[in-house]
Amino acid sequence: MGARDVHSTLNAVWRMEAAKIIAALARQVRDVGLAEELAQDALVAALERWPTDGIPDNPGAWLMTTARNRAIDRLRHAQLQRRKRDALGYEIEREQQAMQAAQQVDPDDDIGDDLLRLMFVACHPALGTDARVALTLRMLGGLATDEIARAFLVPEPTVAQRIVRAKRTLSEREVPFEVPRGEERDARLGSVLEVLYLIFNEGYAATAGDDLMRPQLCDEALRLCRVLARLAPRDPEVHGLLALMALQASRQRARVDAEGAPVLLADQDRGRWDRLLIRHGLTALARARALEGGDGVYALQAAIAACHAKARRFDDTDWAEISTLYARLAERMPSPVVALNRAVAVSMAEGPAAALPLVEALVDHPAMRQYHLLPTVRGDLLEKLGRREEARAAFEQAAALARNAREKALLEARAASL
């Protein structure tokens, strides 16, 4: 096997195993930054040795063992803080001796607890939202700094600084590497779900740039949410978010045409929707609803997405049910964006004249002044009501506010058509 093949295999193994290795090391050394550094040391060792020695039978176990050996070496050379040496050295030495006695390493040992702990640490409320997103993608998604920078259209040094500052904050605050309990757990789980949904949404509808979607981010968020659902099987909102992501992701292939231009929901070829993802989403939604508290904000949004997924044609969509679900969501999560989405459903169920006052009521809301979808919806309603000049002005306003090049072009085209 050539060096290129070895590197390709190593990249694939790293993407699958990095989170497990970092999580296991972080449990031992109680320092996320150091855990990642040790894992990177193991990756460098693999790059040096695998091209000549060959790929080991169990690559993940090889990387784990090498990383743990590096941790022991650092302890022996007093490169870790003295206050940690006795406790950590004993713990790691003991685990290493047990592994050597068994002459094998199980990379999945305690993996569920370790990954869950790492999720809670990476999404700690002490970090800003941008830092949580970057650290989650780096630690749990296995994405390199340049990949995260490209995905969010920010300079690579900016992402690197966010990650470095996040690790420093966690270390300075001595954030425990553990899953919190009780009310603190519920609050922290909300942060984890928020971060995963932010990652997914940025992939599903890119805020800026030339592409409408960034599928890699959707895939990473969906994968991490599946992991979380296995680790927290009794939490309804975890399954609700998983359902929402799967149902939304099922439409990805139909959302753009061959040139990458957006395709509106009414015009999408539903034969291109991923029926397997739809089934997975509906199954996750059923699990959420079967649990106590199964009508949370993510489950309600998933129920709305399910209405679209079940409709074989746009005209078959149960807009009355969607409108009702949005009303329930507005009670649970009051938001001008939810109100705007409900207005769209009302327009489909009862007509544009019923919906326009709901939209007009949001025009002066401070949070909506830079939100391009508000004038977009308003323009659509005005066009349907035959108020073409007002509709054109609304679409022009929306185009001026849009930061995504594909959305801007679509809105300019709609304005020009009027």
Structure, explained:
The chain has 418 residues and is mainly alpha-helical. Among the domains are: 3-109; 329-418, Serine Threonine Protein Phosphatase 5, Tetratricopeptide repeat, CATH 1.25.40.10. 71% of the residues lie in helices and 0% in strands. The protein has helices spanning 3-29, 32-53, 59-76, 82-102, 111-122, 129-139, 145-152, 156-172, 182-204, 215-231, 236-249, 275-290, 297-310, 319-332, 336-350, 352-360, 373-384, 388-401, 405-417. Helix 9 (182-204) packs antiparallel against helix 10 (215-231) and helix 18 packs antiparallel against helix 19. The longest helix has 27 residues, at 3-29. The protein is elongated and about 75 Å long. The model is unreliable at 101-111 (pLDDT under 50).
Q: Tell me the Rg in angstroms.
A: 24 Å
Q: What fraction of the residues are assigned to beta strands by DSSP?
A: under 5%
Distance between the termini: 61 Å
The number of distinct helices, counting runs of at least 4 residues, comes to 19
Assign the structural class, choosing from mainly alpha, mainly beta, alpha/beta, alpha+beta, or little secondary structure.
Answer: mainly alpha
Shape: elongated
